[in-house]
């Protein structure tokens, strides 16, 4: 099923599971992602996508199985640890401040400054230049890094958030439903950007419920349902129609179609 | 020889921006509305009254503006961080009364008394901040409680210690003259006898502007007020910064307390009460959003300048003093409407 070489994987999980109290949210999931590869995690609402994301991002530690970073078993005690290990997560809300300029958002929490203690000052020109340079490199063409980030389109904002994650040393970028709130055109902007990140050698984990967004950009597809894996597929091994059918629950969808037709 | 080839674009510039004039850029700044209003009010009272532009007149409205301005700047920083401090006015009284009581009633060394008052003010500010951060109760409520507590303590405590509602006799305290040189002196500039508080006001405004626009703390303050959750997610030390802002308004309260104390050598127990909303109005007129995340220190200083000019201008024009309040309310409403459009332009797609 899986064509990945686990030895080269930056991030891998082996038989991982997560239990919240008496709720089994995730059982026996194994997958991996390597540099320059896009792993799509697909599933309907409640399939366990968010739980897997939280385990990978260090938000919640896993209950069973192993989390492997560069082949070594690790356990994250918080998002900061995952971040320090080069695993950046772009959450759905993007962690941006709409009224602040793009460049201030880009460096928020990690501002470049010169001088010591109370006399340290921001390197404003440098941060502006870095921001537009980074965005340009990733194909985001901004008119003005001084404009409030809230004035950008949804796709542009998503792209800035991804660029920020990459700039701050991420090797693995986890994207949580980056296209779900976007229109067709804006989703295209983000997908092109995901491809850019992949081409720059990043490992990308793309969590989504939309197979039409996942299929064009993904290398491999992990399909989850009710906390368990329905299988992991190479792009060559599955068509978009099959992927959609599998996600929607296959036989369940057939039954639904018949019911609706009769009605 | 100079080449005729077009200069390579600066990093960070874009050819589509070429048309943006520096003036257009300036107009986007939060304090622009206040600057226009300040010029209009200045022009009006200069023409309508003789006293307004006289050296003594100008020194008077500048002095008025300076005391409100120092507070408004600190309150603006707090408001940019998304909070309010209703105890800021009463704090100017509390600190003055503390120093007055410590020195005149208990014979404490003046400098030590001032230091102790500062420490107490900072502790009250920290307590405000801690309660807001820890419990999530809106700062409006927490500081409203602090305001009433301070108001009660100021009045009851003063009566208890002195039997009066004011503390007097500061001039007899050793070192009072030295204190007055720092906080209560008058400096002649170009024929104007300017109170030293005006220079404190300018200094505090410059310091606050620098903090807001050129340091990491400034970035954090805008982020906390603009989108708290995002600030948390990007690793901004949110609690420390928010508590620090409340301590900032308390420290400004202390400074203004000292400036009034050394100016008149007397402290009324009611000092500062009722002024907390004036600071907020000055900040809002200066471009601060009531919802946080946007504003400027220079704007708040201009808001205070407007307030000072109107306050004294009405006296010079020999109008009924009560018009001030009506005027203030109108300004506030206008400013809020202008600020709303700013937020619509920038943040509506958030």
TrEMBL record, chain A:
One Pfam family hit: ABC_tran
SMART domains in the cross-refs: AAA
First and last residue of the signal peptide: none
Residues covered by the ABC transporter domain: 11-251
MF GO annotations: ATP binding; ATP hydrolysis activity
TM region(s), chain numbering: none
Keywords (A to Z) from UniProt: ATP-binding, Nucleotide-binding
InterPro entries membership: AAA+_ATPase, ABC_carbohydrate_import_ATPase, ABC_transporter-like_ATP-bd, P-loop_NTPase
Organism superkingdom: Bacteria
Record protein name field: Sugar ABC transporter ATP-binding protein
Protein's organism: Cryobacterium arcticum
UniProtKB/TrEMBL annotation, chain B:
GO CC annotations, alphabetized: plasma membrane
This protein's UniProt keywords: Cell inner membrane, Cell membrane, Membrane, Sugar transport, Transmembrane, Transmembrane helix, Transport
Entries under CDD domains matching the protein: TM_PBP1_transp_AraH_like (cd06579)
Transmembrane segments: 32-53, 60-80, 110-131, 137-157, 196-213, 243-261, 273-290, 297-317, 323-342
Domain of life: Bacteria
Pfam families: BPD_transp_2
Compartments (UniProt record): Cell membrane
Entry membrane topology: Multi-pass membrane protein
Molecular function (Gene Ontology), one example: transmembrane transporter activity
Signal sequence, start to end: none
InterPro entries: ABC_transp_permease
Described purpose of this protein according to its UniProt entry: Part of the binding-protein-dependent transport system for D-xylose. Probably responsible for the translocation of the substrate across the membrane.
Protein name: Xylose transport system permease protein XylH
């Amino acid at each position: 099923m899986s064509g990945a070489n686990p030895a080269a994987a930056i991030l891998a999980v082996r038989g991982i599971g997560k239990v919240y109290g008496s709720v089994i949210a995730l059982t026996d999931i194994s997958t991996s992602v390597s540099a320059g590869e896009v792993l799509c995690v697909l599933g309907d609402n409640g399939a366990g996508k968010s739980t897997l994301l939280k385990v990978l991002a260090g938000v919640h530690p896993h209950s069973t199985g192993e989390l492997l970073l560069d082949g070594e078993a690790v356990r994250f005690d918080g998002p900061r640890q995952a971040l320090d290990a080069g695993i950046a997560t772009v959450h759905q809300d993007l962690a941006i401040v709409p009224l602040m300029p793009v460049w201030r958002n880009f460096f928020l929490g990690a501002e470049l400054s010169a001088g010591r203690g109370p006399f340290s000052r921001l390197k404003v020109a440098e941060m502006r230049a870095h921001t537009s340079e980074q965005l340009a490199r990733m194909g985001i063409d901004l008119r003005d890094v001084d404009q409030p980030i809230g004035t950008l389109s949804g796709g542009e904002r998503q792209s800035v958030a991804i660029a920020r994650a990459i700039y701050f040393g991420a090797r693995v970028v986890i994207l949580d439903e980056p296209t779900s709130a976007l229109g067709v055109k804006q989703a295209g902007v983000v997908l092109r950007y995901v491809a850019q990140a992949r081409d720059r050698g990043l490992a990308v984990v793309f969590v989504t419920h939309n197979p039409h967004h996942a299929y064009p950009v993904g290398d491999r597809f992990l399909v989850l349902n009710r906390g368990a894996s329905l299988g992991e597929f190479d792009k060559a091994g599955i068509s978009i129609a099959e992927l959609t059918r599998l996600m929607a629950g296959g036989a369940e969808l057939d039954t639904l179609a018949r019911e609706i037709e009769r009605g | 020889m100079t080449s005729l080839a077009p200069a390579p674009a600066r990093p960070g510039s874009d050819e589509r921006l070429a048309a943006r004039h520096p003036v257009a850029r300036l107009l986007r700044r939060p304090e622009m509305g206040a600057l226009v209003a300040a010029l209009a009010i200045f022009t009006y009272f200069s023409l309508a009254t003789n006293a307004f532009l006289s050296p003594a007149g100008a020194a008077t409205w500048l002095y008025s503006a300076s005391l409100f301005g120092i507070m408004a700047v600190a309150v603006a920083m707090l408001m940019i961080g998304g909070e309010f401090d209703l105890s800021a006015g009463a704090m100017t009284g509390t600190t003055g009364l503390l120093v007055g009581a410590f020195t005149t009633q208990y014979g404490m060394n003046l400098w030590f008394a001032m230091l102790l008052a500062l420490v107490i003010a900072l502790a009250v500010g920290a307590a405000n901040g801690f309660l807001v951060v820890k419990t999530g109760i809106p700062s409006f409520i927490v500081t409203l409680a602090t305001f009433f507590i301070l108001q009660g303590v100021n009045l009851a405590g003063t009566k208890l210690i002195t039997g009066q509602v004011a503390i007097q006799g500061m001039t007899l305290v050793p070192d009072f003259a030295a204190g007055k040189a720092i906080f209560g002196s008058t400096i002649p500039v170009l024929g104007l006898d300017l109170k030293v508080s005006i220079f404190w006001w300018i200094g505090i405004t410059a310091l606050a502007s620098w903090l807001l626009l050129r340091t990491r703390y400034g970035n954090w303050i805008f982020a906390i007020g603009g989108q708290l959750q995002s600030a948390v997610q990007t690793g901004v030390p949110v609690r420390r910064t928010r508590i620090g802002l409340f301590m900032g308004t308390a420290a400004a309260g202390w400074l203004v307390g000292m400036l009034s104390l050394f100016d008149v050598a007397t402290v009324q127990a009611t000092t500062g009460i009722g002024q907390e909303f004036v600071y907020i109005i000055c900040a809002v007129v200066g471009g601060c959003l009531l919802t946080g995340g946007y504003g400027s220190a220079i704007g708040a200083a201009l808001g205070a300048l407007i307030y000072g000019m109107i306050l004294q201008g009405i006296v010079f024009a020999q109008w009924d003093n009560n018009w001030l309040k009506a005027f203030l309310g109108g300004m506030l409403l206008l400013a809020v409407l202008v600020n709303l459009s700013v937020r619509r332009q920038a943040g509506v797609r958030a």
